[in-house]
Amino acid sequence: MLYIIGLGLGDEKDITLRGLEAVKRCNKVYLEAYTSLLSFGLSSDGLSTLETLFGKVITIADRETVEERADEILSEARVSDVAFLVVGDPFGATTHTDLVVRAKKLGVFVKVVHNASVMTAVGVCGLQLYRYGETVSIPFFTETWKPDSFYEKIQRNCMLGLHTLCLLDIRVKEPSLESLSRGRKQYEPPRYMTIKTAIEQLLEVKQNHTQPAYNEDTICVGFARLGSEDQMVVAGSMKQLLTVDFGAPLHCLVIVGETHPVEEEMLGFYTLGGN
Amino acid sequence: MLYIIGLGLGDEKDITLRGLEAVKRCNKVYLEAYTSLLSFGLSSDGLSTLETLFGKVITIADRETVEERADEILSEARVSDVAFLVVGDPFGATTHTDLVVRAKKLGVFVKVVHNASVMTAVGVCGLQLYRYGETVSIPFFTETWKPDSFYEKIQRNCMLGLHTLCLLDIRVKEPSLESLSRGRKQYEPPRYMTIKTAIEQLLEVKQNHTQPAYNEDTICVGFARLGSEDQMVVAGSMKQLLTVDFGAPLHCLVIVGETHPVEEEMLGFYTLGGN
């Protein structure tokens, strides 16, 4: 059996009882490392926090491991219980559909243990999840590569009065250009897009449009470390949020559409200089 | 402190360690009863399962209780730790923004413990959450009252190729018309909309439109008891899903938009008569 278990958003305490039971039953435990694992006690001193809680050795599975070693993981899961832990919900912002498809094709049973995802936890700011349009991802721009397909989606949401959740780029274990040219893989340090960078890129893109969907006065909500003890939620115009230091990752951003009175009242609690 | 704690989707084992810790710290524990509580051991024989797990007496808070006794709950929370438990995520499909707004106005500290919500758990069928448009709610039709504002939203999502999550009506503790006329409140038995009723209503509404956004051949995914051990997920045309017995509540429905190959592959596993 392959258990795909959501860890939730904060730290090791955000696993569910069902998830914990399943992990303890497993012979092998993998942990996906696509997103930030800092709050799970997985920074420099190894896997201590989670491993202590689970009483298991954990194997970190970055994107490469999962792609290259999926068959191995799945053969293990065919004969014994294997846990694949993911931050958030298994089918939230980062999806693990590929692994499930491969498992099902091989006849490996899959069980999913759900958990909180950034995609619903943003509800904490008071904007109703019903009133969100399509979610967009904002990738890091480079000097020469500025993909802006998110703009059109935001524009559509704005025209419909809907809110837009912007998921911000994460670059973990990116091979450095230098190392690629030398034929020996070395990795860039992980990069997590900040709200500041996201807004700068959003404002850069809107300059290409004559009647932009948003501008520096558009109200947004910035979230940092959502679901953690030290989460930060601030509402304000893009211009205002540019000046806020949101601290450590992960960050995400909501572009606010039309609001109802209750939504406004809740947003007020998070507004810069608000009540 | 007022703790608003998500219980997740399945049963008592879906609370997180953080949530359980918080409940155990609380002097008073309320449980919102807007949605189905059947799987939390709260059917006929009282609150046994959750109360045993928590070692606490639980007070059921239906919509009336929350509206009428919010001040009382909040005064308790001002001087001691109070837990308000909700099925799913506190800000998922059913929102508790009102209570939070009132708490914040009274200066009561609020802490939210997130959990899985139907709004992300539907990801299990393989349709990417990125590719969903606005969520709609489908209310029970009566002979004389057939509100169909969901149609326009579905139409918009379809035109954009987006998937639509349809949340189905729940009627808990509705005063019976008869009892209202007698001036003494008696309640109708709880009603949970089935996928069959939802599709019948969807097809009824589309008859009012000359170029309907969907028809009985439109592919949908039906979910019953999502997140529970006995969850059921079936993909098929509206016509096909009408013939499926999805069993006990809660049900929800996704109207499928344009699909990518990986989405199709995953859907295949849930298709009637599929692999």
Automatic annotation (TrEMBL), chains A, B:
<dbReference type="InterPro" id="IPR000878">
    <property type="entry name" value="4pyrrol_Mease"/>
</dbReference>
<keyword id="KW-0808">Transferase</keyword>
<dbReference type="GO" id="GO:0141133">
    <property type="term" value="F:diphthine methyl ester synthase activity"/>
</dbReference>
<dbReference type="InterPro" id="IPR035996">
    <property type="entry name" value="4pyrrol_Methylase_sf"/>
</dbReference>
<feature type="binding site">
    <location>
        <begin position="117"/>
        <end position="118"/>
    </location>
    <ligand>
        <name>S-adenosyl-L-methionine</name>
    </ligand>
</feature>
<keyword id="KW-0489">Methyltransferase</keyword>
<protein>
    <recommendedName>
        <fullName>diphthine methyl ester synthase</fullName>
        <ecNumber>2.1.1.314</ecNumber>
    </recommendedName>
</protein>
<feature type="binding site">
    <location>
        <position position="89"/>
    </location>
    <ligand>
        <name>S-adenosyl-L-methionine</name>
    </ligand>
</feature>
<comment type="function">
    <text>S-adenosyl-L-methionine-dependent methyltransferase that catalyzes four methylations of the modified target histidine residue in translation elongation factor 2 (EF-2), to form an intermediate called diphthine methyl ester. The four successive methylation reactions represent the second step of diphthamide biosynthesis.</text>
</comment>
<keyword id="KW-0949">S-adenosyl-L-methionine</keyword>
<dbReference type="Pfam" id="PF00590">
    <property type="entry name" value="TP_methylase"/>
</dbReference>
<feature type="binding site">
    <location>
        <position position="9"/>
    </location>
    <ligand>
        <name>S-adenosyl-L-methionine</name>
    </ligand>
</feature>
<feature type="binding site">
    <location>
        <position position="168"/>
    </location>
    <ligand>
        <name>S-adenosyl-L-methionine</name>
    </ligand>
</feature>
<feature type="domain" description="Tetrapyrrole methylase">
    <location>
        <begin position="1"/>
        <end position="241"/>
    </location>
</feature>
<dbReference type="InterPro" id="IPR004551">
    <property type="entry name" value="Dphthn_synthase"/>
</dbReference>
<feature type="binding site">
    <location>
        <position position="251"/>
    </location>
    <ligand>
        <name>S-adenosyl-L-methionine</name>
    </ligand>
</feature>
<dbReference type="GO" id="GO:0032259">
    <property type="term" value="P:methylation"/>
</dbReference>
<comment type="similarity">
    <text>Belongs to the diphthine synthase family.</text>
</comment>
<comment type="pathway">
    <text>Protein modification; peptidyl-diphthamide biosynthesis.</text>
</comment>
<dbReference type="InterPro" id="IPR014776">
    <property type="entry name" value="4pyrrole_Mease_sub2"/>
</dbReference>
<feature type="binding site">
    <location>
        <position position="92"/>
    </location>
    <ligand>
        <name>S-adenosyl-L-methionine</name>
    </ligand>
</feature>
<dbReference type="InterPro" id="IPR014777">
    <property type="entry name" value="4pyrrole_Mease_sub1"/>
</dbReference>
<feature type="binding site">
    <location>
        <position position="226"/>
    </location>
    <ligand>
        <name>S-adenosyl-L-methionine</name>
    </ligand>
</feature>
<dbReference type="GO" id="GO:0017183">
    <property type="term" value="P:protein histidyl modification to diphthamide"/>
</dbReference>
